[in-house]
């Protein structure tokens, strides 16, 4: 560029220089201020000057100084800039100027503009046409040819954008535009960043260019953020820098929330010669979930910013199980595989209580995104209402089937479809069908795009009742067309149901990678609460905020169009869908510049057949002079003030009161703060006192200690004295039999009120079902259900075998109807009569049947529990002990004895051996409760066969 190197950004202020002569005249006629003195005749006379020596106007040198000050202020306000001229060659052919204006050019964009302006000035001086192209613009950009003025206006419209350059698209436009031009001189101002299409795009220059000036960029200082993961304890961010022999580098990473408030910072440390580094932002999960943007401090490009949406939030997942747990056999827990699948991706919440009436509100209070229920057949009414309201307000409920749910009532409101009672077995000796594989997931499914593994097979499932909307609610199905996963939107939330158990007893899905992917998709669905599941595989998200080229967020760009997201595909930032947030304020999708595999590599100079000259960007040494001029004016003004004080005689006055001021300062500095002596002594005495021991025992602790120090049997108090007395006498007789025939010496049996008593201390609770007794409350039934889930066993005895046999309808008896009413509120698994080779029939005595005061009613146990050798079902948690036993034979009546050990009631029929068999059956039940399924082990088979006479 030519011309005088000094320029002004506000030249109109130079008009003020015309006022300097007026200022000169005003200063000349204004004499210095007279000297003021206290009246002292002799001192005045001694220094009195002659009248002709008293100045009547300002000295010329003082006037000149003030004129210089005024001139410097005026020039400084006009903002002078020193611009040395650039030296470059004049082009002799049309100029084609190509500029990379992607994210990588944002940090040094003024340097590119200066270089482009210099090249435009050269072409303008040589009267050559100018073409102008930007590689991050759309096809509507005007490219010329321009004259110098039009080219500068077009250049002013080009801005860096938060997208990567598209060289294949841009150079295709260059080739088409310059096809008829006379091999112009091409100047390519690169951003120095390599892309996948560079070789093919730059090869087109051979066809159109006469010569090429190549302006490389140094990307050594660029650092990009390309991935963030919310781990168990920290938000982990991955950064990348260009390859090469680099020194260690430490950068500060700042986390912001949606309101652009800083939440904290972390150090990003690159090791020597390493191109990848990670930073961990340690904070509570609530704070980490509030992070919406990460930015490298002092970086001024979009690559230093990473956006996070709900998909990056670490969701809270609450877990509820209807199965019993056994810490020694974790693989048998219904939640084991769910825990393993979700632990890396979510914060898992487990309730502190097994009682669902306590666990459900406890978990909901922690605001989980997803609640997972494994094999819970029936929830208490209040808990079911709370979860239903939570789902309506946006929660995602994920349920798994199991034996308890398969045998529960079919009026469950927390299922997306109506189920048939019972379960379907696929494969086995009694089945005509083979285990089924998974079909491809339908397009309306949240699992669309996943590829199910071919080796996933399902052996058992619960079946949905046919309905007109069953197809729309099916998210996954088996090869025979039956649903495997169903779901629906309920209010603002979602219900999803797996028709199989979450362990390996029903299928091998839980040990496959497909299971992990399906659970992660479910977590992702929880952030889209309120959005329909969709009937197509493409969703549209309106632009909300766009990422500016300098890495800050701004209102949605004018050219931004809605983002179309297709299931199974990852969208990318383009000119019409720039990086930023899409959606609504309550439901945002973050579109970032890079994927996690992005590597930052330098763009190399292409090998072309036309001459290629490497040039440096124009480094204009523009020097603003405003600060220097205003500073000089301030210094001269200070000098003027000092001279004026000197002429006024101020420096001749004596300094008074200096000594007084110094004394006062010393006194203030020596004022001491002190603690009252009494307070110090009190603190010392308190420290010397010996601490008193704290007694945190409670009145009920004595009863608890007594309960756990000795094994006891227990019974449920019904409120009817006769029934409760028989229960107590019956357990007394069983206690005597255990002490007489085994090494076990139980203490006296105890009656329990399920409303308030702790049941966890008792291995077996006898519950005589009484139709005339008050119906247990929901809280009592929930506590009993929790006791059974945690490994306890309840023996229900309807004591109606004699009545039922005379009526030929056991299910119609009053006690049986009361039992059904109680069990309908519990998670009761499938039941079956004690099989021939069940462990309970051989734990102590060989017992083919279990009579009581009556005989004929079978003893019902949980199906598939405790070592049933003929069952294909695995032994479950709780050491194979059934959590529920049911009989109608009146065990307590047969066991009942008085204090002297004499029987209280005759057996029916009156057979002494029946009472003996009843006591033997009671001993077997207690041994079964205490020892579990150990006798199902093959080690005991020879001894058992010998006793059986085989």
Automatic annotation (TrEMBL):
Recorded hits in SUPFAM superfamilies, A to Z, give: Class I glutamine amidotransferase-like
The transmembrane segments are: 6-27, 60-82, 627-646, 658-675
Entry keyword set: Membrane, Transmembrane, Transmembrane helix
What does the record list as coiled-coil region(s)? none
Q: Which residues form the DUF4159 domain?
A: 712-930
Determine if Transmembrane is one of this entry's keywords.
yes
Q: Does the keyword Transmembrane helix apply?
A: yes
**Aerotolerance regulator N-terminal domain ranges (all copies):** 6-80
Give the matching NCBIfam families: two_anch (TIGR02226)
Q: What is this protein called?
A: DUF4159 domain-containing protein
Q: Which organism is it from?
A: Paenochrobactrum gallinarii
Q: What is the lineage of its organism?
A: Bacteria, Pseudomonadati, Pseudomonadota, Alphaproteobacteria, Hyphomicrobiales
């Amino acid at each position: 560029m030519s011309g005088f190197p000094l320029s002004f950004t506000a030249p109109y202020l130079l008009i003020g220089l015309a006022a300097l002569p007026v200022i000169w005249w005003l200063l000349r006629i204004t004499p210095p201020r007279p000297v003021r003195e206290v009246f002292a005749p002799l001192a005045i006379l001694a220094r009195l000057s002659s009248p002709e020596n008293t100045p009547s106007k300002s000295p010329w040198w003082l006037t000149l100084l003030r004129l210089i000050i005024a001139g410097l202020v005026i020039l400084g306000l006009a903002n002078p800039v020193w611009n040395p001229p650039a030296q470059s060659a004049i082009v002799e052919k049309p100029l084609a100027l190509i500029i990379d204006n992607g994210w990588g050019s944002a940090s040094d964009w003024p340097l590119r503009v200066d270089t482009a302006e210099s090249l435009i000035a050269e072409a303008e001086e040589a009267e050559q046409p100018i073409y102008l192209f930007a590689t991050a613009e759309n096809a509507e950009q005007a490219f010329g040819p321009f004259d110098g003025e039009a080219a500068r206006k077009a250049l002013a419209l080009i801005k860096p954008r938060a997208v990567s350059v598209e060289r294949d698209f841009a150079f295709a436009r260059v080739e088409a535009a310059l096809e008829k031009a006379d091999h112009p001189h091409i100047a390519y101002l690169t951003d120095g960043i390599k892309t996948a299409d560079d070789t093919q795009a730059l090869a087109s220059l051979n066809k159109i260019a006469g010569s090429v000036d190549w302006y490389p960029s140094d990307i050594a200082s660029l650092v990009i953020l390309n991935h963030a993961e919310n781990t168990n304890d920290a938000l982990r961010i991955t950064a990348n820098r260009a390859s090469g022999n680099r020194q260690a580098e430490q950068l500060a990473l700042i986390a912001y929330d949606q309101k652009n408030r800083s939440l904290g910072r972390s150090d990003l440390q690159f090791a020597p010669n390493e191109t990848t580094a990670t930073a961990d932002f340690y904070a509570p999960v609530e704070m980490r979930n509030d992070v919406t943007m990460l930015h490298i401090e002092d970086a001024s490009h979009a690559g230093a910013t990473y956006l996070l949406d709900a998909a990056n939030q670490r969701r809270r997942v609450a877990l509820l199980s209807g199965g019993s747990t056994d810490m020694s056999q974790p693989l048998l827990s219904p939640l084991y595989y769910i825990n393993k699948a979700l632990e890396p991706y979510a914060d898992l919440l487990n309730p502190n209580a097994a009682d669902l009436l306590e666990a459900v509100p406890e978990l909901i209070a922690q605001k989980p995104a997803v609640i997972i229920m494994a094999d819970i057949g029936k929830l208490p009414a209040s808990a079911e209402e709370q979860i239903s309201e939570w789902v309506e307000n946006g929660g995602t409920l994920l349920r798994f089937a199991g034996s308890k749910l398969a045998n529960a009532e079919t009026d469950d409101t927390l299922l997306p479809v109506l189920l048939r009672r019972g379960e379907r077995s696929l494969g086995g000796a009694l089945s005509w069908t083979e285990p089924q594989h998974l079909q491809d997931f339908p397009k309306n499914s949240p699992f669309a795009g996943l590829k199910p593994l071919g080796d996933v097979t399902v052996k058992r499932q619960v079946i949905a009742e046919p309905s007109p909307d069953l197809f729309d609610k099916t998210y996954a199905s088996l090869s025979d067309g039956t649903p495997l996963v169903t779901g629906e939107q309920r209010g603002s939330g979602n219900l999803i149901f797996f028709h199989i158990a979450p362990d390996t007893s029903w299928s091998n899905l839980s040990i496959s990678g497909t299971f992990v992917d399906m659970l992660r998709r479910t977590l992702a669905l929880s952030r889209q609460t309120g959005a329909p599941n969709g009937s197509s595989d493409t969703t549209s998200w309106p632009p909300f905020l766009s990422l500016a080229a300098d890495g800050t967020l701004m209102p949605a760009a004018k050219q931004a169009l809605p983002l179309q997201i297709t299931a199974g595909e990852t969208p990318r930032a383009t000119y019409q869908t720039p990086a930023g947030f899409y959606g609504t304020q309550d439901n945002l999708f973050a579109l970032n510049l890079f994927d996690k595999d992005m590597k930052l590599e330098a763009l190399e100079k292409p090998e072309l057949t036309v001459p290629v000259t490497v040039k440096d960007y124009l480094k204009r040494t523009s020097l603003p002079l405003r600060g220097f001029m205003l500073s000089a004016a301030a210094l001269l003004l200070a000098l003027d003030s000092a001279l004026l004080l000197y002429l006024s005689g101020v420096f001749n006055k004596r300094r008074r009161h200096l000594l007084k001021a110094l004394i006062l300062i010393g006194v203030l500095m020596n004022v001491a703060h002190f603690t009252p002596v009494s307070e110090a002594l009190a603190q010392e005495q308190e420290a010397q006192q010996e601490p008193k021991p704290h007694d945190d025992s409670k009145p009920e602790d004595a009863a608890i200690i007594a309960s756990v120090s000795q094994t006891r049997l227990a019974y449920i108090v019904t409120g009817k004295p006769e029934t409760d007395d028989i229960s107590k006498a019956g357990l007394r007789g069983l206690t005597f039999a255990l002490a007489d025939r085994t090494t076990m010496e139980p203490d006296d049996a105890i009656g329990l009120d399920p409303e308030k008593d702790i049941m966890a201390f008792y291995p077996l609770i006898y519950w005589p079902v009484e139709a005339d007794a008050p119906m247990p409350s929901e809280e009592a039934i929930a506590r009993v259900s929790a006791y059974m889930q945690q490994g306890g066993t309840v023996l229900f005895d309807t004591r109606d075998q004699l009545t039922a046999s005379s009526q030929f309808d056991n299910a119609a008896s009053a006690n049986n109807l009361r039992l059904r009413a109680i069990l309908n509120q519990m998670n009761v698994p499938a039941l079956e009569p004690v099989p021939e080779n069940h462990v309970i029939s051989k734990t102590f005595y060989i017992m083919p049947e279990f009579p009581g005061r009556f005989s004929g009613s079978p003893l019902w146990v949980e199906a598939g529990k405790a070592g049933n050798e003929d069952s294909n079902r695995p032994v479950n948690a709780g050491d194979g002990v059934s959590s529920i036993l049911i009989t109608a034979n009146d065990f307590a009546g047969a066991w009942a004895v008085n204090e002297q050990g004499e029987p209280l009631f005759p057996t029916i029929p009156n057979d002494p051996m029946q009472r003996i068999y009843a006591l033997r059956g009671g001993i077997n039940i207690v041994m079964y409760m205490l020892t579990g399924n150990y006798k199902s082990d093959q080690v005991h088979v020879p001894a058992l066969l010998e006793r059986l006479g085989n």
